[in-house]
Specification:
Two copies of one chain form a homodimer.
Chain A lengths: L10 E5 L4 H13 L5 E4 L8 H7 L3 H5 L2 E3 L2 H5 L4 E5 L10 E2 L1 H13 L4 E5 L8 H4 L4 E3 L12 H15 L19 H17 L9 H14 L4 H15 L11
Parallel strand pairs in A: 1-2, 1-6, 2-3, 4-6, 4-7, 5-7
C-alpha cells in the first residue's frame, strides 16, 4: 500500500466556526485527502471541543494540532498566499478561481516556497467583506443557484478533493513571479497597508467617511494583486516615507 | 441570477445507509450541485427519518422525493449504467474511474438516453462485493492511503461537485455504443444472468461450490462490460435456450 499523505501546506483556516461537529468533520476530510494543518479563528464554542473530537474519528491528530487564534491577523500572519472560499463578492477586484484552479495555483505557489492558506467562513453567514478582502483570490464552487448554501465540511471536502487531484498534475500554472524573490507575508503587507492608511488619513484622503472602508479595500486589492515581495513591500514603505517627509508626516508612530 | 438546477439523472443510491444525519446531509449536497434523485436501499432506521429532515435544511424536496426500496434489485431495476463508489476491489474486472471520469462518462451516457445510477455503500463497512458486482464501473476517490474512510456525505459531495463541473465540458468521452440501440436495463440483465446461472447449475458448471460466487461474478462482469442492448440481451437468452434444448434443460421454469 502506498505511504500515508500528510502535507503541512496549504493550511485550512476556519473563520469563526460555530458547530464543533463541523470542525471535527473538516479535520476528518482534510486528513482523508492528506492535509493536516487546520487553523481556527475565534471558534464560537470553547476549545478543545468534545463534539469536534467525536466527529473527527481517526483525525484527532489534525484536531489536536489545530492552531487557534483570536484574530484573523494572527491566523494569517505567516501566509504569503490567501484564498477565500466564497461566492463571488461584489466590489472586490480579485481573481476568482474554481477549486481545481485554486488547487493548481497553490501547487505552483508551494513550488516557489509560498505559504498558502485557504479560508472558509462560518456556517450560514459566511465571511465579512473585510475578511474576504484579506485574500489574494476568491475560490467559488459551481453550486446550484437555487440552493447554494453548502455544509462547511462539504465545502472543505470539495477543495481537499480538488487539491488531492492536483497532486497528480505536472504542468502547473506559471502566473507567479520568479522564485528568486521572497514573497511578502500578510504580516508585512499589513504593516505596509497600516502605514499607507495612516498617512492617507493624515492627508484627509478617505472621504466621505462612509466610503473610507471601501477605498481602503480597493487600495489593498491593488497591492495584493501585485503579489509583492518582501523587498518590494519595504521599498513601498520607503516611498511612503519619502512622500510624506516635510508635510508633518508622523514619523514617530511609524508602524 | 441563473435559474436553479434540478436534474433527475443521474440518480444517487445509498445502499443500507445507517445514520439519518448522513442521509439528510446527502440530500442537501445533492441539491447544492443540482441533483435531485435520491434512492435508498434498506435504510437502517425507520423512514421517513426526522434526523435526516433536520440536516437536509432546504433540501426537503430531495428527501421527500427519495425512493426507498428493500432490495438492490428493485432499486437498480430501471438503471442502464451503474457506478459503484468504492475503493478498488480485488477480483472484479471492471473499469475504475475517478470522480471526474465517472461524471464525464455519465454525461456521455445521458446524451445517449441511458439511465445512470451512482451507488454509495453504508457508513464504515461499505458495500458487499456482491453489491459492487452489480456495477458497470467503480468510482474511486484519490484518498490518503493512511486515512481513507470518508464521511458518506463528503464522498457524495465530491462526486456531485465533479458532476457539476462536468456540465461545463463539451467534449465528452465516446466509448459508449451507438445511440440507435436501446441499452438493457439491470432488470433485463438480471433475467439473463438468472437464466444463464440456472442452466449452468443444471450443467454442474459451478464447482467447487466455494468458487461458485466468484465464478458467477466473473461471468456477470463479462456481460456488464459488453454494455448489452435490449436486443442483445434477448439474443443471448435465445442462445442459452438453443444450447440447452434436448439436454433436459428446464424450459418450464425459464425465467
Amino acid at each position: 500500500m502506498p505511504p500515508p499523505i500528510e502535507e503541512e501546506w496549504p493550511a485550512i483556516l476556519l473563520v469563526r466556526p460555530q458547530m464543533g461537529e463541523n470542525i471535527g468533520a473538516v479535520a476528518r476530510v482534510l486528513l482523508n485527502f492528506g492535509l493536516i494543518s487546520l487553523r481556527l479563528v475565534a471558534p464560537r464554542d470553547r476549545w478543545p471541543n468534545p463534539k469536534a473530537e467525536v466527529v473527527a474519528v481517526g483525525a484527532d491528530k489534525v484536531l489536536k494540532g489545530a492552531r487557534v487564534e483570536w484574530s484573523l491577523d494572527e491566523a494569517l500572519a505567516d501566509a504569503t498566499l490567501v484564498i477565500a472560499a466564497s461566492a463571488r463578492p461584489r466590489g472586490l477586484e480579485k481573481p476568482v478561481w474554481g477549486p481545481r484552479e485554486a488547487a493548481l495555483n497553490i501547487r505552483a505557489a508551494l513550488a516557489l516556497g509560498e505559504k498558502p492558506v485557504v479560508m472558509f467562513g462560518p456556517e450560514a453567514a459566511g465571511m465579512e467583506t473585510e475578511e474576504i478582502a484579506r485574500a489574494d483570490a476568491i475560490m467559488t464552487l459551481p453550486v446550484n443557484p437555487g440552493f447554494a448554501s453548502l455544509n462547511l465540511a462539504n465545502a472543505v471536502a470539495v477543495f481537499a478533493f480538488a487539491y488531492a487531484e492536483a497532486r497528480q498534475v505536472e504542468d502547473l500554472p506559471s502566473w507567479f513571479r520568479d522564485s528568486e524573490s521572497e514573497p511578502a507575508t500578510q504580516e508585512e503587507l499589513e504593516k505596509l497597508f497600516g502605514h499607507l492608511e495612516q498617512e492617507l488619513e493624515h492627508g484627509r484622503f478617505f472621504h466621505p467617511d462612509d466610503k473610507a472602508a471601501l477605498m481602503k479595500r480597493n487600495l489593498r486589492s491593488i497591492f495584493l494583486r501585485a503579489r509583492l515581495t518582501v523587498q518590494e513591500a519595504q521599498t513601498l514603505r520607503g516611498v511612503i516615507k519619502a512622500l510624506t517627509i516635510g508635510r508633518g508626516g508622523r514619523k514617530k508612530d511609524d508602524l
